[in-house]
Amino acid sequence: MKVGATRPLTQVGIFLLFFIVPLLDLFRMDLNQLQFYVFRKSFSFNEAYILLLSVLLLVFFFVGISKWFGRQFCGWMCPHNTFSVYIAKITGTDKLKSSPTLRQFLNIFLSVLFAPIIAFSMVAYFFNPITLFQEIISLQWNSWAFGAYALLVLFFFVMIFKLRSNFCRNACPYGMFQMILSDKDSRPGGFKNMFRGAGLVLLIIVVSLMGLLGFSIYSSSGFSVSIDKKIQGIPTEEYLTYTYGLSIHNNYNRKVTYAIDYQGIPADWDVKVPKQISVSSSVTHSETMMFRVDKHSLNQNYSILVTIRSDDGHLIEKQLNIYPVAPK
Questions:
Q1: Which of 219, 238, 254 is a domain's end point?
Q2: I need a labelling partner for 210 at 20 to 30 A (CA). Which of 76, 99, 136, 261 fits?
Q3: Percent of the chain with pLDDT over 90
């Protein structure tokens, strides 16, 4: 394919990808639910190392582009630059140049049309797109997502109507960063730069991060577990009662059943603990664990191993320590 055709196809493809990525959960965060998505698989922030690997991969990839190909990102991949170029082509025709009023009207119309769409996509990287859409159409002013959306609409209106390519030349952080990293050999070297000097180091880092990220996603348990204290050492009859809240968050897009096993519970304790929990997709389910400790077990530390195993074989172990003391 000729370069003349490749460039606009690449520009339009990446521009559309900017909008598609959060809608398809290819990569986004949900700050309300405290989880994030990578390649349509959800994770809780307890597995934030996967998010860190994703961000590092993006950072080193964009650093690599500058080192390998010079200042090509702006012309080939930057969504803002692509949008600005095509808007300039639409509003820069000879007919519109001869009619300043019509040209100004079209500029305002395009700004009003596209600013809400671009702002929506930006917020959707940090908030559930469906919930965000519902909050926008119902005008939920008290939502932080709606507030962020309103501010971004104003920002992008100014960007589209007034700044456009001026932002790229004078304020874009990545554009300035490219100037530092690229050198006289970057652009003519092209793919060869990926296999020599600093370019090779960056390639090794990017490939290594891709491998680590892929392995981390594949080996992820798909759920997270937390155990919280509730009642501690309340005397009831011949026992001291301890209760804990066991919470399981299912990151899968399907219902999952978890088997729960306990090791280290003395035989003479009276316990009521869940042995199996079914959790619907992408929700958190909580159950209470109750341990009634007999008074012969006072002043001794008991370490209880709680093992939670999903129906696909992944497991998480939690250590629970109970040190019963006689009430004063």
A1: 219
A2: 76
A3: 48
